[in-house]
Design goal:
The chain is an alpha+beta fold. The protein has a domain of about 40 residues. Helix content is about 45%, strand content about 30%. The protein contains three helices and five strands. The strands form two sheets. The chain has a three-stranded antiparallel β-sheet. A two-stranded antiparallel sheet has the order 3-4. The longest helix has 20 residues. The two termini are about 20 Å apart.
Length: about 90
Amino acid sequence: MNKTELIALTAERTGLTRKDTERVINTALEAVSAAMADGDKVQLSGFGAFDVKEREARVGRNPRTKEMVSIAATRVPVFKPSKALRDLVGKE
């Protein structure tokens, strides 16, 4: 499912217009993104938690030339699903 399909499905189930639904979804995603950019954790009960993980600087290897290269420290987004979501997805 992509963003357009999510908007269409949400609009259909809520009875809102697609335009209003798109604004709501975009605002929610912007809020989550802004919170994560500030280093905050975003928890959605029954769905999961979005967090930011710090990766330390390390040394890597260029697979083509076998040359050692340094990889700078960075922050990366991570998602941890809730138990309810894991159970739902894990059903056969």
